[in-house]
Structures are given as structure tokens and as C-alpha cells.
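Per-record layout

source: Kineococcus radiotolerans
name: Histone family protein DNA-binding protein
length: 185
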Amino acid sequence: MNKAEMVDALETRLGGRKEATTAVEAVIELIQLTVAKGDKIAISGFGTFEKQVRNARTGRNPRTGEAVKIKKTSVPRFRPGTAFKEVVSDTKALRAYQAELKAKATGTAPAAKTAAAKTTTPARTASGTRTTSAAGTAATKTAAKSAPARTTAAAKKAAPTTRTTAAASKSAPAKTTTRRVAKKA
């Protein structure tokens, strides 16, 4: 996305092309002037713009191999914030962020923050069955009744299961053998 595309994207949100152009140019100009003075700009959730000073040093000309003096210089530096890193690296976080922005634009609460989405999952007892509180929803209660009971890891180690298999010989296909198979925890 370049500057013109950014203006186009902001045009609908800010009410017109002139306002969007003014806003984009004002933000860019402010960042450039502030960093050039040596101050730091920290935008919460987005990142930090700052001036980084590189000291004078001696380098080498790759063509001739002779030593070359490099003057002291300043360069702009951007360090992304943790929220920005998370949105870029995680697709789930990106979808949640897009839903939040869409909800802000329409003036409704995002789905993740509504009362229906705040229902908690049922707790598990020591035996592995699900329990629900009195405030649980009907869907949660239905899931609790239909969920199979789970055994703990200690119970799996203590009681190996038995498996019945058919014999591999042709003479006695009806003969079955039982062997003990230990399950991995």
C-alpha cells in the first residue's frame, strides 16, 4: 500500500478525500519532524519511531580493498509494538483485530465482547465429567450431558485394556485370542 492507496482507504472513514489526504500528510510530517529533532514517538500498540546515531567508522571499498572513512550519521529507526507484532504473526489475532475495527465502524460491540460470547466452558471434575453452573446456557448443559466421561492419565496407566483379535490361520477363522495392550498416557 502506498500513500495514495492509504488516502483512498481512509477516505470513507474520514468523510472525504481532502480530509484523508490532510490527515495522512499531517501524521507523516509530524513523525518526520519529531524524529529529525531527536525526539521519540511512541504510538501505543503500533510501535516506536526514533533517531538512531551511527558512529564514525572505517570501512573497506569492496572493489579495491582500500580503507575508507565513514562519517557519523543518523538514521530513522522503527520498532514495532507487541500488539502490531501479534497481528502480523498470528492469523487469529488478525481476524479478531479486523472484527474489532469493523465493529467500531458500525458502532456495535464486537462479537468477542458480547454477553453471549462471555459464557464459560463447563468445568471438569476429577472423574473427568463436565459440570455446569446454575448460570450456564442450555447449549452448555446439552454438551455436558452428551460428552463422554474421560479417565485420568493415572487411571490409564494403571489399567491396561484388552483387545480381541482374530487368529491369522486359515484353518480356524473363528478362533479368537485375547492379548493385553498397554495404552500410552
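summary: DSSP finds six helices and nine strands in the chain. Residues 1-37 form one domain.
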